[in-house]
Design goal:
Number of helices: 11
Subcellular location: Cell membrane
Distance between the termini: 76 Å
Structural class: alpha+beta
Order of helices and strands: HHHEEHEEEHHHHEHEEHEEHEEE
Radius of gyration: 51 Å
Shape: rod-shaped
Enzyme class: transferase
Strand content: 5-15%
Number of strands: 13
Helix content: 40-55%
Largest sheet: 6 strands, mixed
Pfam families: HAMP (PF00672), HATPase_c (PF02518), HisKA (PF00512)
Oligomer: single chain
Keywords: Ion channel, Ion transport, Kinase, Membrane, Phosphoprotein, Transferase, Transmembrane, Transmembrane helix, Transport, Two-component regulatory system
Number of domains: 3
GO molecular function, one term: phosphorelay sensor kinase activity
Strand order of the largest sheet: 11-12-10-9-7-13
């Protein structure tokens, strides 16, 4: 199986690689600069050796005599200007007071034949010594080649290379260790985050907050993780509460439905038919209970999918209210009056229409027959006013809870979910819900909607005349 390094190892390797590249570049430049500097110094020494002038200052001499001078003068010559050999125009040469010589090149012969001095070059003597050589013209078909031993320079450069190599290796090793330490310290919050995620996956326990320190990217990730787990825990609690409430609310109609059905079955089994009137009443009760169950399951389904499933878009709330009023007006014999000003929000038009329809259904249910329900939309405040018995002030906070029903309204049909759905839709749109008493004693249920754009002049502008439906 192919080994794949972890994130810490990758970060350490990346830092070590960057350091290695930097060390390599610096080492190469240092090695090259040292070698060039030392060679330039030797070249300067060779180039600034005016041999012919020195010999002329000693008087006239025969160049050929250089090949026969004694070792004493040769040693002095080597200390002053370097090793010397005479080059003739015919290509022959002789070493001055030494055994070592360097091969004669065509450039050297050209200098002996009257050409210009050569440029400094590397060469190797007959004894295998690495030298730096230059050839100067003399007179009468002669030239002289001077060279200096490069052994000391080569040793110095070689030692420098080994030193740079060893120090560079130690530097890379140190960078690797430092990278591991830094990566371990820097990624410790990620380790904590990983441990928390694995704990959540293993135990499904979402109460595992991570300590957030600083404001960097890792801190933001930890904060986002804490928010996510809190949101998931809240959703799970709401889900469990919904299931518990639904089980409780479904128990009563199901028990009543089962009792009536058992009564019908027992009458058939015992061949004791019910009176026609009693049978009709029993069937009507069964039909009403089935309708109540259908309504309850529908509202539970809406409540379970309250989060917007579509992208929120600009919504004209006044148009949404008009559509909801048209739908509600077909369900009963109540007059619904409207006074709507244009208002735009960002949201889900279907969810908003469902919330408005629930407000209207709630108002119609508690209003006397043939009474009026008023709907107003002014500066983002949507109000639905009924002429019913009203809601006591002590119950204002409870009417938006799931499955809560006022004691005075438990005889009426309903599940206690209508206003809970309104509250959930309002929350997803950044709105606020409220309840007040009307002048006639009824209830005014309101939703305060935020504008689509507070800087735009379109929101909340213009009036629509009041009319009745």
């Amino acid at each position: 199986m192919r080994w794949q390094p972890g994130l810490k190892a990758r970060l350490a390797l990346m830092s070590a690689t960057a350091v290695a590249l930097a060390i390599a570049v610096v080492s190469v430049l240092a090695w090259w600069a040292t070698d060039r500097t030392m060679r330039s110094e030797i070249d300067r020494t060779l180039t600034n050796s005016p041999l012919s002038a020195r010999f002329e200052q000693r008087g006239s001499f025969d160049v050929q005599d250089l090949c026969t001078i004694g070792p004493t003068f040769g040693a002095i010559l080597q200390r002053g200007i370097g090793a010397v050999q005479v080059v003739r125009a015919d290509g022959t040469s002789c070493a001055v007071a030494q055994e070592a010589a360097i091969p004669v090149t065509r450039e050297d012969i050209a200098v002996a034949a009257g050409g210009e001095a050569t440029a400094p070059r590397d060469a190797e003597t007959t004894t295998g010594t690495h030298v730096r050589a230059i050839t100067f013209p003399l007179r009468d078909g002669y030239a002289i080649t001077v060279w200096r031993d490069l052994t000391e320079l080569d040793n110095t450069v070689r030692t420098l290379f080994l030193a740079l190599l060893i120090s560079g290796g130690l530097g890379v090793l140190g960078a690797l260790c430092a990278g591991l330490v830094v990566a371990r310290a820097g990624l410790r919050p990620l380790d904590n985050l990983t441990d928390a995620a694995e704990h959540v996956a293993a135990t499904q326990n979402l109460n595992v907050p991570i300590a957030v320190t600083g404001t960097d990217e890792v801190a933001r990730l930890a904060l986002a993780f804490n928010r996510m787990t809190s949101a998931l825990e809240g959703a799970r609690q709401r889900h469990n509460q919904t299931i518990a409430d639904a089980s409780h609310e479904l128990r009563t109609p199901l028990t009543s439905l089962r009792t009536n059905i058992e009564l019908l079955v027992r009458s058939e089994d015992q061949q004791r038919a019910l009176a026609p009137g009693d049978r009709r009443d029993l069937l009507r009760s069964l039909s009403g209970q089935l309708q109540e169950l259908t309504h309850l399951t529908s509202e539970l389904s809406l409540l379970a999918h309250q989060e917007p499933a579509v992208e929120q878009v600009p919504v004209a709330v006044d148009e949404v209210v008009r559509r909801a009023v048209q739908r509600a007006s077909r369900r009963g014999h109540h007059t619904i009056t409207t006074d709507l000003q244009p208002w735009t929000v960002r949201g889900d038009p279907a969810a908003l229409e469902r919330a408005v329809l629930n407000l209207l259904d709630n108002a119609v249910k508690f209003s006397p027959p043939k009474s009026a329900v008023a709907v107003r939309l002014r500066q983002g405040l949507l109000e639905v006013e009924d002429q019913g018995p009203g809601i006591p002030e002590s119950e204002h906070r409870q009417v938006f809870q799931r499955f809560w029903r006022s004691p005075s309204a438990r005889a009426l049909p309903g599940s206690g979910l209508g206003l809970a759905i309104v509250a959930d839709v309002a929350e997803t749109h950044g709105a606020q819900v409220g309840v007040t008493a009307s002048a006639t004693g009824g209830a005014i249920v309101s939703i305060r909607l935020p504008p689509f754009n507070a800087l735009s002049g379109d929101a909340g502008r213009g009036d629509t005349p009041a009319h009745a439906v």
